[in-house]
Amino acid sequence: MASPKADAAPDLLAAAQAGDRRAIAKLLSLAETAGNAVFRPDEAAGDLMARVYQAAGAAHVVGVTGPPGAGKSSLVNALAKDLRKRGLTAGVIAIDPSSPFSGGAILGDRVRMGDLGGDPGVFIRSLATQGAMGGLARPALDSVDVLDACGFDVVVIETVGVGQDEVDVAAAAHTVIVASPPGLGDGIQAMKAGLLEIADIHVVTKADRADADRTAADLAGAQDMGLTGKRGRGWSVPVIATSANDGTGIAALAQAVLDHGAYLAASGEDRERRRRIARLRLETAALDLMRREFKRLAPDMAQLIDDLAERRDDPRAAARALIGKALKGGA
Amino acid sequence: MASPKADAAPDLLAAAQAGDRRAIAKLLSLAETAGNAVFRPDEAAGDLMARVYQAAGAAHVVGVTGPPGAGKSSLVNALAKDLRKRGLTAGVIAIDPSSPFSGGAILGDRVRMGDLGGDPGVFIRSLATQGAMGGLARPALDSVDVLDACGFDVVVIETVGVGQDEVDVAAAAHTVIVASPPGLGDGIQAMKAGLLEIADIHVVTKADRADADRTAADLAGAQDMGLTGKRGRGWSVPVIATSANDGTGIAALAQAVLDHGAYLAASGEDRERRRRIARLRLETAALDLMRREFKRLAPDMAQLIDDLAERRDDPRAAARALIGKALKGGA
After folding, report:
1. How many domains does chain B have?
2. Cβ-Cβ contacts under 8 Å, A283 against chain B
3. Does B51 or B39 have the greater pLDDT score?
4. Which positions of chain A have pLDDT values less than 70?
5. A95, A107, B296, B308: which sits with the fewest CB atoms below 10 Å from its CB?
């Protein structure tokens, strides 16, 4: 992917906020790659992303996660369609390497959008994760901000529920939906991964399958025993069976999302959750700055790496030396 | 888990190297948690882990990864058994949240070991990933070093092949095995995740199933077209069908692992690969130091977090402030 230019930045946010879809796409590309440019405070891209962050904050951010094969993409598309019927606009950031549609390709986005394609009230983006040791959190959360700042009422962030970063990113939402496919085996595996306990709403997908009822009952039972779902003071985590094929449960899910948003606001839990997300943002931004800075320092690292490879040094001592170098040149 | 004491450190490495299994287990616990203590260079735990790193380097490190449900744990156990028959010792670090046996529990380790249980030439450890925004790479790689330093001839690191960190950790090995279950759908999904291309050896598991041949043929075809596997100068990535049930292909797999090790040494690619791994170690150690330091600074972060949550500040500006604080107090 060609690196987007930050020079054209001044009016990009304004254009995106006015609904220019190419401007929104450009901002999202900047959000994915901006880390390269923002270690120096005076960079135009960094300034632009700072403006994006400060313009964001009004959207209801919904995390959707679940094991591979749970049917998350179809669920998210159906949810977006239902929200549109209610007059709400919806943005989607998908980070799902197991989705046949992900990978950041423009084609992928078009394929994903399907019958939502012509609707200006929907924007779906598949985020390319960049490989090379993590770092998907910062671009993902920045991308959510872009759609938030552009005025989408609901912004959905979809991640596969395996991989610590992936789960953490989905959990950094106001409302967290955990999607489980029918079948007990997967359910137990997901539970082992700590996936079920982050749910504000449980969804059992593929409700047209015979074993969906059983899975929903199992989840509800686990819920009653306090094994899954957050212990909200006044929020009882619902278990909703959905089918993206025939539309079962989709309206109920959309309603539950809105209800949960209302609950957060009424209970004051909203503020607490925003602080938790802000803390995550701070830490991921700081780690991202360090990671990018290390990349910049790669030419200076050859000797450190040689010494490590030959076991003449140890990783922490070398890391302290590297951090020292980074800070001299950086912030 | 109670935090292991570093005070008893001086003789712990020597005891572990002499084969004391409790000492090995203690060292592994230190490797998992040591990050808490090693920002200050004079900490005993940090010194111990530095000694571990410098004592390591002789083992052949084998990464095993693949989608959830590929049967990686059974494959790794069967591989370990075959290596034992050849007179080699084997250590295993498993980071697989979808494995019913993972989670770091001592019980889990015993269950996993099965009929390998009484053999002093095998050590299997399930690593608990610690949640809270990534950071599984550093404990995982340190744990590999522990078993390496304790003299195990082959150290296997098993991770689920979904999640960027998880894939990167498995790729930080001398020989990378990608395990695919029969069935084309999964294969395509894995390919999308960039999983297949890191393979030095492809394994199709559950070869007793009818569709295994087809998957093996598909992988071999993709291989011929240059779609999967590394472009080694002199290494042709084999596709091996295995069954942990009836033992099919396990001896061929063990032989391929040893052959690949010999290839690396003969071709000089070994040195290049060790440098690549050292670079990863350096970056993960540096990020881990920063991450732990941020945790230590949590009480000082309240105002930054409030400003971020209220969108009065932006993540990068706040991150630069945080890094400034960290460096003042730290390295």
Report:
1. 2
2. 133, 291, 294
3. B51
4. 1-10, 34-43, 96-115, 117, 128-135, 162-163, 184-194, 225-233, 329-331
5. A107
Chain B residue with minimum CA distance to A100: B189
Compare CB distances from B314 to A54, A286, A301 and report the shortest one's residue: A54
Minimal CA separation from B105 to chain A, in Å: 12
Q: Cβ–Cβ of A324/B331 closer than 8 Å?
A: yes
Looking at the complex, report in whole angstroms how far the Cα of residue B85 sits from the nearest Cα belonging to chain A: 30
Both B81 and B218 in a single domain?
A: yes
Q: Is residue A81 part of a domain?
A: yes
Residue A92 lies in a domain: yes
- Beta-carbon separation of A309 and B282 below 8 A: no
CB–CB contact A305 B275 (8 Å)? yes
Residues B163 and B246 in one domain: yes
Closest alpha carbon within chain A to B104:
A192
Indicate whether B75 belongs to any domain: yes
Q: B134, A132: Cβ pair inside 8 Å? A: no
> Is pTM, for the whole model, over 0.95?
no
**Complex ipTM, two decimals?**
0.81
For the residues of B147-186, what is the DSSP string, one character each? HHHTT-SEEEEEEESSSHHHHHHHHSSSEEEEEE-SSHHH
Span between the terminal Cα atoms of chain B, in Å: 28
Cβ-Cβ contacts under 8 Å between A and B: the total is 238
Tell me the one-letter amino acid at A170: A
Side by side, which strands form the sheet with B239-241? Answer: B122-126, B90-95, B154-160, B60-66, B175-180, B201-204, B239-241
Helix (H) or strand (E) holding B70: none
Task: Check the CA dihedral A290-A136-A83-A19 and report its sign.
Answer: positive
Question: B142, B31 in Cβ contact below 8 A?
Answer: yes
Separation between Cα atoms, residue A184 and residue A163, nearest integer Å:
21
Residue ranges making up the domain that contains A214: 56-279
Which residues of chain A have a CB within 8 Å of the CB of B306?
A: 275, 278
Residue B298 shares a structural domain with residue B205: no
For residue A41, the chain B residues in CB contact (below 8 A) are: 316-317, 320
CA distances from B140 to B32, B81, B135, B281, B297 (A): 7, 22, 9, 11, 25
Q: What is the model's pLDDT at position B131?
A: 47
Is the per-residue pLDDT at B6 higher than 90?
no
Domain assignment present for residue A289? The answer is no
What confidence tens digit (pLDDT) does each residue in A15-41 have? 999 999 999 998 998 888 765 544 444
Cβ-proximal residues to A278 (8 Å cutoff; 6+ apart), any chain: B305, B306, B308, B309
Closest CA relative to residue B150, chosen from B65, B92, B63, B87: B92
